[in-house]
Design brief:
Elements (H helix, E strand, L loop, with lengths): L3 H13 L7 H11 L3 H7 L4 H9 L8 H15 L86 E4 L4 E3 L5 E3 L5 H10 L18 E4 L1 H6 L22 H8 L3 E2 L7 E9 L2 E9 L18 H14 L7 H12 L3 E5 L6 E5 L21 H4 L14 E3 L7 H4 L3 E7 L2 H6 L4 E2 L4 E4 L9 E6 L23 E5 H9 L8 E4 L3 E2 L3 H17 L8 H14 L1 H20 L25 H26 L5 E3 L2 E6 L30 E8 H9 L4 H4 L12
Parallel strand pairs: 1-4, 4-7
Antiparallel strand pairs: 1-2, 2-3, 5-6, 6-7, 8-9, 10-18, 11-19, 11-20, 12-17, 13-16, 14-15, 14-16, 18-19
Helix pairs in contact: 3-4, 9-17, 10-17, 14-18, 15-17
Length: 712
């Protein structure tokens, strides 16, 4: 018979064991029986609502001291709300501790897996029945979301090297939220430990987008709480420009990284920090960090994302990573990185003499070396301009900013009740489709014969071309008629020829090697845009009336997917803009090289080609609309145009055939790049008032009644 001392020893051992919780389904039942919301419980336990959802779905477990507090609460509720009149049983303690292994995602089948309705929003995955959960407390419980796959998301075959997807969002409790509802247990307490865990244990990363490219480095997004836990400041202060934000080199975290023999890029430890070691063999050793509280996710490109729960942030970034690319910085940086990922500069090639594999130029790419532009393609501060004393003028291929002179408005137009805005979907992306650009260095020619198939810059006088003043000139961004010889990109000169005018270039800088460099970039971003709109209920099979109704409500359908859509659009514009990134900082002097010039993708001529084609496409539609309907625009701003209208919908003035089908050549409604969507509706009186003040109605028609900036 056991002695009293032995019994007390056994009891003490039980007391010292880790507290055990009831099964996840029982936890949810008890909370609901008590009438407490997940948000209120999260507030009481000083954690996030998503953490409570995870505890009730068996995806993760609370840690000390929340574990003991949560257990005490559940015991109290169990006494008050027993099952069928009997006290709720808690799970039997596990005989052995859960092994500390990297968790693998599990796939559920049966009723629980199919419970969520298609198109389910941001709620946590459907709760598993108690019988389906393990009785012991797991070390970490990653689980695949029961939310159906969003729309037509392209889901590549799982790469066994990256079982947990491209990225994770780390909270202050050590939970790393990945794609598809996966939650990993991250024990790291320092940045070097986080980097090691990410590379060795997390199973994060993404396969290359091109067979000659490189795998995407894993991304860890840090919430404010996670940043503080790792020794980082919650905010970075004291810098005028956001892009210059970074930790000082003597910061303890930077020293930790250095002591652990890791490196930082020249950007340092800022909102987007890359921590790496030199490549060993074929294995890359690099982790990308994004600090949310340092404004890593710009509100203009990622609306509302920084304020979302970690699991929802992971969902947004995960969809973007799968459809576009794992974020590497701003959407502009990601847009530029996507070009290189889809057109790698090199490929392996066997050397005929040695028989060894060597790195060779990949045809169709921009190569590995930066290339100086022709003087008229450069910016005034560029070394090729400053050092040569160039004074021959520059390309002015920019997007439209045009307002029709008020004295060219007719009484009939002024009497119409509405001004309706139309926006072309990702107009720059549409312009990049099958766009032939130069791949080699420019050659200089005098008095060349114009050839619309050769990309380059042409000095030509288009001032003699007479066009309808109710339309903007297709040759200048402000829509004014040219006043003499000027530099134009090939597409602008070709359009003058298309309009029936004979052109005689005075001079040109042309490229002999050409190719559709942006084609794969266009295809990937077009699919991302169309698929994300489809997730929001805007599909290609809708009639124009149905399309307008779907666009009215698409942003409310799923804020997470609406944020992905905004990021895709920002990636297009930002990526094109990065092709001609200007110098930054007050210490810069004209003639000095700046960092962007060292990239092969610093190509202002390619940017000019895209914008020129987009502007020409816009003018062609404006001219066709005038021919088909007799209507002329009030104003144009980049890809937005405002028309006077008898009704409060684009259907009131867009051209349709007798069959009801849209007339080709003009503006057409639809969800694909190059087609149009409504941008806003205001009164004609409002538009005329702005025009009289010298303001552009296309800039403001989307907003409400905000006070306008007179200095626009």
């Amino acid at each position: 018979m056991a002695s009293e001392e032995e019994l007390f020893a056994n009891i003490d051992a039980l007391l010292e064991e880790e507290p055990q919780l009831p099964p996840p389904a029982e936890r949810a039942r008890l909370r609901e029986a008590a009438g407490i919301t997940q948000a209120r419980l999260a507030s009481a336990l000083k954690t996030t609502t998503q953490s409570v959802k995870n505890w009730e779905n068996g995806r993760s477990e609370p840690r000390t001291p929340r574990l003991e507090a949560y257990q005490r609460l559940l015991k109290g509720w169990a006494a008050k709300y027993p099952v069928h009149g009997f006290p709720a049983a808690t799970a039997e303690p596990s005989s052995t501790a859960a092994p500390a292994v990297v968790p693998q995602p599990v796939t559920s089948t049966g009723p629980a897996a199919s419970a969520a309705a298609p198109g389910a929003g941001t709620a946590a995955p459907a709760r598993l029945p108690a019988a389906a959960t393990a009785p012991e407390r797991p070390a970490a419980r990653p689980a695949v979301s029961r939310r159906p796959a969003a729309g037509k998301a392209a889901r590549p075959a799982a790469d066994p090297r990256f079982p947990h997807g491209p990225l994770a969002v780390l909270d202050g409790d050590g939970c790393a939220y990945g794609v598809d509802g996966i939650v990993l247990d991250c024990p790291a307490t320092t940045v070097p430990e986080l980097v090691e865990w990410t590379l060795r244990e997390s199973g994060l990363g993404a396969p290359r987008l091109h067979r000659h490219g490189k795998d995407s480095d894993p991304l860890i997004v840090l919430t404010a709480a996670a940043a503080v836990k790792l020794g980082l400041p919650e905010r970075l202060e004291g810098h005028e420009q956001r892009r210059s934000l970074r930790l000082p080199e003597d910061h303890p975290v930077v020293r930790q990284v250095t002591r652990a023999k890791w490196r930082l890029t020249r950007r340092g430890f800022g909102p987007w920090a890359r921590i790496y070691r030199k490549v060993q063999g074929r294995e890359r050793q690099c982790v990308q960090l994004a600090v949310l509280s340092w404004d890593a996710l710009d509100e203009r490109s990622w609306p509302g994302v920084s304020g979302m729960e970690p699991a929802e942030i992971a969902r947004v970034l995960g969809v973007y990573a799968r459809r576009v690319i794992t974020p590497r910085g701003s959407t502009a940086v990601s847009g530029l990185e996507l070009m290189t990922a889809l057109r790698p500069p090199t490929r392996p090639e066997r050397d005929e003499e040695s028989g060894n594999w060597v790195s060779a130029h990949n045809p169709g790419s921009l190569g590995t070396e930066p290339m100086d532009p022709a003087p008229p393609e450069a910016t005034p501060e560029h070394p090729v301009v400053v050092n040569s004393g160039w004074s021959g003028g520059f390309l002015d291929e920019e997007a439209y900013q045009w307002v029709r002179p008020v004295d060219l408005l007719t009484d009939e137009e002024c009497m119409l009740p509405y001004a309706v805005g139309l926006d072309l979907n990702t107009a720059f992306l549409a312009a990049a489709s099958r766009l032939v650009v130069g791949l080699s260095a420019p050659d200089h020619f005098h008095a060349p014969r114009f050839n619309p198939k050769i990309p380059g810059s042409w000095l030509v006088d288009l001032s003699g071309i007479e066009l309808d003043p109710r339309l903007p000139s297709p040759f200048t961004p402000d829509g004014a008629r040219p006043t003499g010889p000027a530099w134009y990109q090939t597409h602008t000169v070709a359009y003058a020829q298309e309009l029936g005018y004979d052109v005689h270039p005075i001079e040109a800088y042309l490229r002999r090697e050409t190719g559709a460099y942006l084609d794969p970039w266009h295809e990937r971003l077009k699919n991302a845009y169309v698929d994300t709109l489809a997730d929001l209920g805007v599909t290609r099979d809708l009639s124009d009336t149905e399309f307008l109704a779907a666009m009215e409500r698409h942003k409310q359908a799923d804020p997470a997917m609406a944020a992905v859509l905004a990021a895709v659009k920002a990636t297009v514009k930002g990526g094109i803009g990065k092709l001609r990134e200007r110098p930054q900082g007050r210490t810069y002097k004209d003639g000095d090289r700046w960092p962007a010039l060292e990239r092969p993708t610093w190509r202002p001529d390619i940017r000019a080609a895209v914008i020129s084609r987009a502007r020409v496409n816009m003018h062609r539609k404006l001219a066709n609309m005038a021919k088909m309907t007799g209507r002329y625009p009030l104003a144009v701003l980049s890809d937005c145009v405002v028309y006077p209208s008898p009704g409060d919908s684009p259907l009131a003035f867009l051209p349709y055939a007798a069959s009801g089908k849209p007339q080709p050549g003009g503006f057409r409604l639809g969800p694909t790049p190059g087609l149009a969507k409504p941008e806003g509706v205001r009164s004609m009186l409002w538009a005329v008032d702005l025009m009289e003040k010298g303001l552009n109605p296309a800039r403001h028609i989307k907003g409400g009644d905000a006070v306008l900036d007179e200095g626009e």
